[in-house]
Amino acid sequence: MGRVVVTYEAGGAPARQAGVRRRAELGEFLKARRAKLTPGDFGMPPGSRRRTPGLRREEVALLAGVGVTWYTWLEQGREIKASTQVLDAVARTLQMDPVEREHLYRLAEATPLRTESPCGAVPDAVREIVESLDPLPASLINARFDILVSNAAAEDLFWEWHSLPCIHKNNLWCCVTEPAARSQLLEYDRHIRYMVARLRAAYINHMGEPEWEEDIRRLSSLSREFADLWARHEVTKPERRTLTYLHPRAGTLHLAATELDVPELLEARVLVYTPLDAETRARLPLTRGPRL
Q1: What DSSP letter does each residue of 69-97 carry, written as one string?
Q2: 90-132: per-residue pLDDT in tens?
Q3: How far apart are CA 256 and CA 274, in angstroms?
Q4: Which end of the chain is more exposed for a tag (fewer CB within 10 A), N or C?
């Protein structure tokens, strides 16, 4: 008997119409970016019979390493799935800057849904506590793994994980969508399974909420791994965890992940990483440095 994978689709005519408009906007955005580049920008001969300026669709597909049909459908606004790895390849090929890349991700539903900024609700005292934990990496997260506040040590620790500065601001989304996550989190399978089980346990308090339902739908669409784990219906409570993280400059770091509840904020907790051994404690300062 085959596996059953549960996915979530936005319901209702307004949601479907919004999806059509969003996909059309995505196609127009890609066309506009494509028109700004030429084959010469990539050391390619200009060719002949060019009716319009810019790269052709098949040239973008070739340079990005994706199928011509798939890329054509993406520009045509068809309802297709686009992994973050493929979106990154398209963004690099079209030479998008960080703002344009974030816009691409949002149009492709490759970021968490944000209806309002969560940071404004964080009391100043809680924010000061998180920041004062530096040089220990610390962040304030909610039940959906949104990063509400993070101190400089936490941002430095994970800065080089991302192909470009993080646009997700969500620990689960970063683990699922960032290409470097599996190679740098050395117990990735255990780590992601725990996070999805925590999300499933918290979901009972948020069933039917548009932000939660939409995030689960997007993650299921982007990641077969997430969809498979979500379909298991595994739940868990907070537990003592360790993290083995391969930092590009500091090397292998062994860290304890400790969660501290925040009574002022329902379902929020402060996540603090502390060295598990003397070698990690000595290497941790190597994670600090300029963010390129």
Answers
A1: HHHHHHHTT------HHHHHHHHHHTT--
A2: 999 999 988 888 888 888 888 887 654 444 589 999 999 999 9
A3: 5
A4: N
* 68 C-beta neighbours (distance < 10 Å), count: 14
Q: What is the pTM of this model?
A: 0.75
State which amino acid sits at residue 48: S
Task: Give me the helices (H) in the chain, please.
Answer: 13-35, 57-64, 68-75, 84-93, 98-107, 124-132, 152-159, 171-177, 181-184, 188-203, 210-222, 224-231, 278-283
**Residues recorded for the chain:** 292
Positive/negative CA dihedral, 163, 198, 81, 102: negative
The alpha carbon of residue 172 and the mean position of all alpha carbons in its chain are separated, in whole angstroms, by 7
CB 139 within 8 A of CB 145: no
Closest CA to 77 of 17, 23, 21: 23
